[in-house]
TrEMBL record:
This is Probable RNA-directed DNA polymerase from transposon BS. Coiled coil: none annotated. InterPro entries: DNA/RNA_pol_sf, RT_dom. It holds the Pfam family RVT_1. Signal peptide: none annotated. Keywords: Nucleotidyltransferase, RNA-directed DNA polymerase, Transferase. It comes from Eumeta variegata. Residues 1-124 form the Reverse transcriptase domain. The gene is RTase. GO terms for molecular function: RNA-directed DNA polymerase activity.
């Protein structure tokens, strides 16, 4: 037995009660800054045409939040906080913000400006290209694929059905977690994830080099990564439009930019045509249906 001076044990029955009493009723900023709360992760964000208009209002919101945290004796670590300025400019800048931009401060400590930040499992970059996130989850998926090779590889005696189940439960979720957020990324970036799935299909089926990826996807009854993400996005937007959380409803209530526009948003994936591999797989499936009929 030992006294607990901060926090509660993970999974404790007191956690929901203390969360409701201490965190869930956190006051909203009075400066028009939006506050997003998920468990103990707090995000303050504001939209404006100029970063100079954002900083004073964000700083005031941070000060109000800090005052409330002190009142309830909740410790916060400013070193784990980060500032990120989202800019749709197609130019790749060396610095995350203009050089003379001051830092936001919390508890008299500067909050550094960063090019990217991992928030709720998603690596968000300042241009919202999601290049860093896709590279990270691809590397992690390849690691799991290599560790599970004994069960799903060419020499495994496991059935194709079980190999497919292991892949869809252990490897694909690593790549497609929160996919409605980044499914609109550049096709060449998303194809890096498709290569991982192609690798699995060829290993699992012990297929020679001349068997097409579309045939493997059809035989394994496995949708392509882009098809899977598009279906997930359609389900997400259908649910989000009528969700009770007003932040979520406002986040999805917009018209996607035209296809030729340099700025793409998550809704764009709903109107995108299928990629080449997806079209081939769908064509093979239709041919099979016609042959059966």
């Amino acid at each position: 037995m030992r006294p607990i001076r901060a926090g509660v044990p993970q999974g404790s029955t007191l956690s929901p009660l203390l969360y409701s009493a201490y965190v869930n009723d956190i006051p909203r900023p009075s400066t028009g800054v939006q506050l997003a709360l998920f468990a103990d992760d707090i995000a303050l964000y504001l939209r404006s045409n100029c970063i100079r208009n954002i900083l004073p209002r964000l700083q005031r919101a941070i000060d109000e939040l800090t005052q409330w945290l002190r009142l309830w004796r909740i410790d916060v670590n400013p070193e784990k906080s980060a500032s990120i300025y989202f800019d749709y400019s197609p130019k790749k800048l060396q610095f995350p913000v203009p050089i003379d931009t001051p830092h936001l401060r919390m508890l008299n400590q500067p909050i550094p400006w960063q090019h990217n930040y991992k928030y709720l499992g998603i690596t968000i970059d300042k241009h919202l290209h999601f290049r860093d996130h896709i590279a990270r989850v691809r590397k992690l998926a390849l690691f799991y694929l290599s560790r599970l090779n004994g069960m799903i590889g060419r020499k495994s005696k496991m059935s194709l059905r079980n190999k497919r189940t292991i892949y869809t439960m252990c490897i694909r979720p690593v790549m497609t977690y929160a996919s409605p957020v980044f499914a609109h990324a550049r096709p060449d970036l998303l194809y890096d994830l498709q290569i991982v799935q192609n690798n699995f299909c060829r290993r699992a089926a012990d297929a020679p080099w001349y068997v097409k990826n579309s045939v493997l996807h059809r035989d394994l009854e496995l949708p392509t990564i882009s098809k899977f993400m598009k279906d997930a996005s359609e389900r997400f937007f259908d649910i989000a439009n009528s969700h009770p959380n007003p932040l979520l409803v406002s986040a999805v209530s917009y018209e996607p930019p035209p296809p030729q526009h340099f700025c793409r948003r998550p809704r764009n994936v709903l109107i995108d045509p299928p990629d080449e591999l997806t079209a081939e797989v769908e064509k093979l499936i239709e041919v099979n249906k016609m042959a059966i009929e």
